[in-house]
Amino acid sequence: MDATETAGAVPGPDDPDFPAHHAPGCTALADLDALLTGCRACPRLVAWREEAAAVKRAAFRDRDYWARPVPGLGPSDAAVAVVGLAPAAHGGNRTGRMFTGDATGDFLFAALHTVGLASQPASSHAGDGLTLHGVRLTSPVHCAPPANRPTPGERDTCRPWLAAELDLLSPGLRAVVVLGGFGWQALLPVLAEAGWSVPRPRPAFGHGAHVVLPATERRQELHLLGSYHPSQRNTFTGRLTMPMLVDVLREAAAVGGLPAV
Ligand code: SF4
Q1: Structural domain of residue 111, as residue ranges?
Q2: pLDDT score of 58 more than 90
Q3: Beta pairing class for 135-138 and 222-227
Q4: How many CB atoms lie within 10 A of CB 237?
Q5: Model confidence at 2, in pLDDT bands (50, 70, 90)?
Q6: Residue in 22, 154, 162, 190 to alter for ligand 1 test, most ligand atoms within 8 A of Cβ
Q7: Domain count, the chain
Q8: In a designed cystine with 253, which of 32, 90, 215, 260 is the match (CB 3.0 to 4.6 A)?
Q9: Which domain of life is it from (predicted)?
């Protein structure tokens, strides 16, 4: 085998195998986040995130967009993870920070702040001083998808990043709040593959769902809680109200041993 073949054996950022090859070897969240932000494994999403940055929304015409994968946000010893869907084209894809820069994020951060898990109720840009207390925000897909709908193939390609992130969080992780059915469906196989005991048939998603995954040889007990996604479609119609989301986050904080208010 010559040097060219040897170099070709390691998937580069444009290779669909890039996440699966590199994510499991990360031993720190900072390393994972750094690798993740260079990922270009999904051609459709790479094109979309970059097109959104080139065309821009009128209100952000003078802003530079991040236009790359958006890493998780929050401390590496978080007891609670909040798992959404994917960054929004003009929200996280613009600001480079999970859930930051759009109405969905405003709703979520207001709820987190009410419970005492965020330092401020609003988040506008990556340098706005926001910090999270004991909670990490992440998603099964890290690039903005057209119409907020990643394909099953894109979800599966991105899965190793979430699996590795949860593995690195696992020593202190006690609860996961899942925002919406897509995140729920994406998360369960990740948890099962990572050694958590996920019941069969798999628990159904619903707002207020609360499933306890028992401890195994490899994993501690984990509480899985469901909430409707704080998308504008849900919040404008009243399907998800602020008290509903606050209640779920407060329950997660309680089982996670966090000092919620
Ligand atoms: S969605 Fe995930 S796997 Fe696909 S390009 Fe973005 S970070 Fe990479």
Answers
A1: 14-255
A2: no
A3: unpaired
A4: 9
A5: very low
A6: 154
A7: 1
A8: 260
A9: Bacteria
